[in-house]
Specification:
This protein has two helices and four strands, in the order E-E-E-E-H-H. With 65 residues, it is an alpha+beta fold. It has one domain.
Length: 65
């Protein structure tokens, strides 16, 4: 963990949660990506695979005031 960038913390590409440890590898669309612990368990059970395959739009940026 100590040798990884920010100790393995980042944004999970599946659930879009921030500041979680993304150190678990999972197969999504013939790609191996690093996901959080919760998403790895959910993908292992096959529950989220259809939601992962659908593109998720990025949130709109908040204009600075």
């Amino acid at each position: 963990m100590k040798d990884q960038v920010r100790n393995g913390r980042g944004v999970c590409p599946v659930c879009k949660r921030t500041a979680v440890k993304v150190v678990f590898e999972a197969q999504i669309k013939e790609k191996t990506v690093k996901v959080c612990k919760i998403c790895k368990a959910t993908l292992g059970h096959g529950k989220v695979q259809t939601e992962v395959e659908a593109p998720v739009p990025a949130p709109a940026p908040v204009p600075a005031t």
